[in-house]
Amino acid sequence: MRKLAPLALLLWLGVAGAAQDQSKHDSTDPAACKTCKPAFDRAVQFVRANFRNADVAGNAYAGLLFLMLNPKDNDLQACVQTASRAIGGRTGGNSNWYIAISAYFLSEVYLRTKESSVQGALVNAINTAANTMEQTGGWGHSPGFWRTNNYHKKGGSRDLGMVTSMMYSAMINMKAGGIDIPEALLRRVEKHLESISDGQGFNYGSDNKVPDEAMGRGGYVFLGLTNAQMDNHPFYPKLVEGLKKRYKNVDKGHACASLHHYSVAAAMHRAGNYATFAAHWLDKLIAAQKKNGSISLGCDRGDSHADETANAAVLAIILLLQKDGAFKAEGNKVEWKPAPAAPGGKTNANPFSQKEPPEKK
Ligand SMILES: [Zn+2]
């Protein structure tokens, strides 16, 4: 190309500069793409070297990466064991975070491996969660945590939309995997989620109407609904709309940025919109990768809450999700029906305004 007409050059630059520079990417497999491979390899290497010392989120997102690479990955087994130890019978401090993040991770593992030990850990998690739920139907940091210094009136909330979204997703995934979840428990959580809906995603919590700017909370719910093929669920179309409208805000999520980046990317992949997400984010994230392979994902608290392993794992996952079917939905279809008609025989248009069915003994 010795002589390129200036107009043609300008046109080419205009198109290429529009979003992700397609000429830089020669494969949707990050292990084969000339631009993605060095970033992908460094991120995976960082995760493998550090996940054993990571926090609960780092362990879970490392595990999700290993699961996507190969459900028989040896390092995945180590993450499963760590997550299984993190979830049973905890009730203080940030216990519900440990349970929610680990249960969500293990539920995705279970759908793909059907290991009985994972099933046992999940049942343990949900039994604990059923006892740590707030009166609202959601979960806070731990039961009653909100009473500490009136946390719920000082920017916190009795319950946290992110924890509740993860718990709900884990329960739907379990159901799609054939594990029995009490219907009344599910309905109660759904009703609560409906009460904190921001129209598309889910608010920070009952006492704090900060919306789901990044769609990170909605992303987890969407992953559960797609695993269970619950596309007739009233949340479903709202979540699709929210993801399409807000994917550019994935770095605007509260606190741990990795939580939002992961679920929004995976949900966009599930929704068939990943090329759009990648076009906006991929080159920016690759350019921001640190020398050690991890990345600062940016959020409203800087990196103070960030786990480097979680961030590196989520970067690798974002690169990996370019591949069609890298994280496809698994699980049996769960029939979703609106709650029973109100007395008088009229079907209520909004199933969540119904009274919940009586608790089964
Ligand atoms: Zn690439």
Radius of gyration (CA) equals: 21 Å
Question: What does the overall shape look like?
Answer: globular
Show unreliable segments.
Answer: 1-18, 345-361
- Domain module count: 1
**Given the helix and strand composition, which structural class is it?**
mainly alpha
By DSSP (H or I, 4+ residues per run), the number of helices equals: 13
The CATH architecture classification is Alpha/alpha barrel
Number of strands: 0
Mean model confidence by pLDDT: 88
Q: Gap between N and C termini, in Å?
A: 76 Å
Q: List all distinct small molecules, including ions and cofactors, that are bound in this structure.
A: zinc ion
Note the main sheet.
Answer: none
CATH class assignment: Mainly Alpha
Query: Into which percentage range does the β-strand content fall?
Result: under 5%
Sketch the topology as an H/E string, one letter per element.
HHHHHHHHHHHHH
As for the CATH topology, it is Glycosyltransferase
The portion of residues assigned to helices is 40-55%
Write a brief structural summary.
With 361 residues, the chain is mostly helical.
